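Example with several molecule types.
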Amino acid sequence: MAIREHTFQQDAHIALANTQLRRNLGKATSVIRAKRGNVVGELPDWEALREAGRAIKAQTLQHLDEYLLQLEASVTRAGGQVHWAQDAAEANRIITELVQAAGSREVVKVKSLTTDEIKLNAALAEVGIAATETDLAELIIQLAGESSSHILVPAIHKNRSEIRALFRQTIAKGQDLTDHPKDLTAAARAHLRRKFLSTSVAISGANFAVAETGTVAVVESEGNGRMCLTLPQTLITVMGIEKVIPTFQDLDVFLQLLPRSSTGERMNPYTSLWTGVTPGDGPQAFHLVLLDNGRTNVLRDAVGRQTLQCIRCSACLNICPVYARVGGHAYSSVYPGPIGSILTPQLAHLERAETLPYASSLCGACYEVCPVKINIPEVLVHLRGQVVRHQERRLAGKLNPEHVAMRTLARQFATRARYERAQRLGRLGQGPLTHDGLIIWLPGMLNGWTATRDLRQLPRQTFREWWQQREAKR
Amino acid sequence: MRVALFITCFNDTLFPETGIAMTRLLERLGCEVTFPLEQTCCGQMHYNTGYQREALPLIRHFVSVFGEAEMVVSPSASCVGMVREQYPRAAAQFQDAPLAAAVAALVPRVYELSEFLTDVLRVEDVGAYFPHRVTYHPTCHSLRGLHVGDKPLRLLRAVRGIDLVELPDADECCGFGGTFAVKNADTSQAMLADKIRSVLDTKAEIICAADNSCLMHIGGGLSRQRTGVRPLHLAEILASTEEEA
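Resulting structure tokens for the full complex:
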């Protein structure tokens, strides 16, 4: 998992100053929000579907070990081979060896989120294997040498004129290219078709894998995924262990929930389903790498566990008022937005991501749109509790101003006498800070408030004083 | 009906006029209003910032203060949300079965003001008069926590003289979020800037909500920018009458 070098606040500060980014994100998220709202609103049983999705996922996670073994048996029976990877290093080693065994120096890739999590491209490059991303947005960020800023639309931070400039420096050198989406797509297609026809190994992620049948599903919009999944001789699929679902029939629920939640479409253009290998048709070797990489730890936590229900639709990113302003890079993880704020700290070490659970105003919009009803605000608060307890283990944490203030306030609020004394002291203490009934400057971390907002001074009388005065007169 | 005011520490200390308005409003509607003086803070700030152990004594205190009340009514959707949603979780987290039982018994009697008026007293026209241009911001915890829906708007629409205008992108968070406003001040300010833009677009003179915490945030920005738009709690509009005007 990504290791944060900066705090969320530091990265957000930089992102918020980027006017082009603000414009790109604001526009893209509001368009996709509206589309989602329309296609979800037209379904009378949407809430029942959400509940079904949640229930299937929760039940699967309860018996994950059994379903994974069943999946392994089904895939093997259908002519595929299953590999178990405890962490990123093991997954990368397995995949690298499989590509080398197939005798290839090149791979095409699709649905790369999980492979981004394990930094597969870097591992492949180390042994001289070149990976080409074939999802258009993934290709754009690969060419730009950047990282994804959105689960579903990884290049959401870029607009078409920026993409045109990038293509003219890379895959369309010397070509007369407009910034029309059609022309940009045509340039990418010409580049990718050559790769599809010449590359013998493909690496994919997976949206779902059916334990009962061994069928793996990839849901996409462009058809480039279909090329990856059908043309090469060898197909290697990497998936997190939480992607397994019990039966083929369960796809009925998820194939309705996912496209409506992610792209705001009733149905996505391409849904590829394959079961092991079929002689004379499609890849003749199929490998399924089942990745843990911290997931079984998440499973142990009764509150945090629901995070693994995620189907990576990104509805929570698009609705999130924080994400819509700071963008995905501020989260320094392949999993940005609200889901990233709870997934990253649980998959990585908490101390390396301890600002993420606080990157939310707890407005609850993410929970409301989540197609599998992950209560993201609940998990955020739960993780904040872990962050606080973790910080307190160090003396510096115990003595930091916030901790001291919180402990002091909790003591003052514990009884009426102390609480009323604190109210009186606050009124006395504010004197030097007030001006025309307002407080316009506060010291320390409270300056975060007064930098752009006024604060009314404490009134002469508290409500309880008014009440007692009134009672006395009666 | 005998009603115990859960004023919240925030309103008690910073916005006494909201509590005064609520008292007058409820008494006008025939309620017998009480104010348990032992009440302090519900513990929301501590709990939601991660100081759950510190919040626990406050939660126990709240339950002991209000446990016997017939009805508990509050001018804060956010603090009611804390009681309704987080109290059961806190009891479970600290494996306190007696607290869990007491919370379960208390929660059905705790209401946010607009809920209490429309669901319990079953009134929409509370006899208010308020001749001003007003826009209403549905706070996140009232909208997505308590699911009050259009209850506050129904109450406002029945106010005589009011010029109620719709707020664009109303359901988007104003950026307050408790300690979020301080811990993530930059992002909070960016959210506030967009909320202020929406408020100004309405040309309203008053921004109304069911939470003074969000209003303090929005109002603090409006004041700094000298916009001439004033924040006002729902209770204060509903308490206004022709005689006072």
